Amino acid sequence: MPPHGDILMKMTPFRLTAVLALLVSPAISAAADYPEHPISMIVPFAAGGPTDVVARSLANEMGKVLKQTVVVENKTGAGGTLAAGYVASSKPDGYTIFLHHTGMATAPALYSKLRYDPLKSFEYIGEVVDVPMTLMARSDLPPNTFKEFVDYAKANGDKINLANAGPGAVSQLCGSLLQQAMGVKFTTVPFQGTGPAMTALMGKQVDVLCDQTTQTLPHIAAGDLKFYGVTTPERLKQLPDAPTLDEQGLKGFDVKVWHGLYAAKGTSPEAIGKLNEALKVALKAPAFVDRMEKLGAQIVSEDRQTPESLQKWLQAEVAKWGPVLKAENISVN
């Protein structure tokens, strides 16, 4: 039997065009039809936590654009690395996407053994929102202001229980930097997500928590927790009268959470393109904009909503946080 190339060379232009169309049409059809069934959006933290809140609002709006349901699935554990490993090893067909925050960049420095490489195991869809953090305390903790809290912390030290969302979480990073800046050492209490950590704070089982505005603004408005300040240098639009920690003496203190959307490495450019377009439309949806506004989340500018921008940002964040974490001797294994 002659080689396939010889057969094609002997065909008339019309027959050659027809055969080539048959060969490539399945791929074209698959790209045109995507998505044909629901998409899973994996969230690496507990339901009810700040990243979960962003995910559910985003999934709802992206589903409208894609004309398919986007189902949020919470896969918790190990500071988000279990979920990241799950997505990295998933079928690269565009039906499993991943919303993660700053923890994507800190994982290489925190974990000596990862099932994935944050920079090489994923396709990039785009950045989503930035979320400032706030320093909160249980309602009956004696200090009423941050200045009073600093004095109280220096006098009580490790008697203060500082909650976080588990190893590698941004709340842990924020708490570690806070202790360093204040020159104190608290007793840290890890939870599986900031949702459970906030529940413990509300129940007065822990004393302090550094958490995202997506979860804390309702409590600040209700006054059922004590609020000591914002962790970004700029005041929040939603809390114009609330001073930042930088203003209150922790000069240069700046911690916020950024979120990106990913898919498994090898996901087709066509699927990534459709997902990116759905992301861009979702970020402009009035319901999403209103929801983020109320939560204190800041939607990223259009130039950051691209795969290329997210890739460059992640590379820069890995390079930024790696030396910081190593210098602080912060690691998980």
Structure report:
This is ABC transporter substrate-binding protein. The chain is α/β, with parallel strands linked by helices and 333 residues long. The protein has two domains: 38-130 and 257-327, Bordetella uptake gene, domain 1 (D-Maltodextrin-Binding Protein, domain 2); 132-230, Periplasmic binding protein-like II (D-Maltodextrin-Binding Protein, domain 2, 3-Layer(aba) Sandwich), CATH 3.40.190.10. 45% of the residues lie in helices and 18% in strands. The chain has helices at residues 4-10, 13-33, 50-66, 81-88, 103-110, 146-156, 170-182, 194-202, 213-222, 269-282, 286-295, 307-327; strands at residues 39-43, 70-74, 96-100, 122-137, 161-164, 187-190, 208-212, 226-230, 256-264, 298-299. Strands 1, 2, 3, 4, 5, 6, 7, 8, 9 and 10 form a ten-stranded mixed β-sheet that branches. β5, α7 and β6 form a beta-alpha-beta unit. The termini are far apart.
